[in-house]
């Protein structure tokens, strides 16, 4: 079975250095890296190792495509998955400007994630969109009214929700 190496320094407070990734790449089943840092040089070197590169931070999908990345394993795709798929397909078809324009249109989905710590905002968004995704485990708590309204605003800007009546 293929293995995807997760390099997520924001979660583990340690960046997996390229040299270590190169050693892991010698294992035949290691096929890809989910890269959640914005070190574009490291991303370029990962692709150079022959590994598939996936963005682990939502705002890195488009930049990584330009380096030979394959897409992303990201949080915002729970609400804009079809749009991200279209962006990747446009890029691969050579419509780089169309992909860039779609990436720009998706900015509110990135803003949404910054409203509250993960997974508070994305669960709030999914609930607002009518998907029952369950609660959170302590110490996390649900979105505040202010956070919920900020998430709602992001979803409205994305065209996923109609603006609330005044």
Mind explaining what this structure looks like?
The protein has 166 residues and is of the alpha/beta class. It has a domain at 1-74. The protein has 9 helices and 4 strands, in the order βααβαβαβααααα. It has a 4-stranded parallel beta sheet with strand order 1-2-3-4. Strand 2, helix 3 (40-48) and strand 3 (52-55) form a beta-alpha-beta unit. Helix 7 packs antiparallel against helix 9 (145-157). The model has no long low-confidence stretch (mean pLDDT 95).
Topology:
Layout: E1 3-7, H1 9-12, H2 18-25, E2 30-35, H3 40-48, E3 52-55, H4 61-65, E4 71-72, H5 77-92, H6 96-105, H7 107-113, H8 120-128, H9 145-157
Parallel strand pairs: 1-2, 2-3, 3-4
Quick recap:
The chain is an alpha/beta fold.
User: Which structural class do you get from the secondary structure elements?
Assistant: alpha/beta
Question: Which residues sit in consecutive blocks of at least 5 with pLDDT less than 50?
Answer: none
Mean pLDDT: 95
| Relative strand content | 5-15%
Helix percent band: 40-55%
Q: Provide a count of the helices.
A: 9
Order of helices and strands: EHHEHEHEHHHHH
Shape summary: globular
Strand order of the largest sheet: 1-2-3-4
Largest sheet: 4 strands, parallel
Overall radius of gyration: 17 Å
Q: End-to-end span in angstroms?
A: 53 Å
The tally of beta strands, per DSSP, is 4
């Amino acid at each position: 079975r293929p293995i995807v190496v997760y390099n997520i320094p924001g979660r583990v407070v340690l960046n997996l250095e390229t040299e270590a990734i190169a050693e892991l790449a010698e294992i035949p089943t290691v096929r890809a890296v989910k890269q959640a840092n914005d070190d574009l040089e490291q991303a370029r070197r990962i692709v150079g190792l022959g590994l598939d590169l996936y963005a682990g931070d939502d705002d890195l999908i488009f930049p990584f495509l330009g380096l030979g990345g394959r897409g992303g394993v990201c949080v915002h795709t729970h609400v804009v998955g079809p749009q991200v798929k279209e962006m990747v397909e446009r890029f691969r078809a050579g419509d780089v400007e169309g992909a860039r324009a779609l990436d720009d249109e998706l900015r509110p989905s990135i803003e949404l994630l910054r409203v509250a710590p993960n997974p508070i905002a994305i669960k709030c968004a999914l609930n607002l969109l009518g998907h029952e995704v369950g609660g959170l485990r302590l110490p996390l708590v649900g979105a505040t009214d202010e956070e919920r309204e900020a998430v709602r605003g992001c979803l409205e800007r994305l065209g996923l929700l109609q603006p609330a009546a005044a």
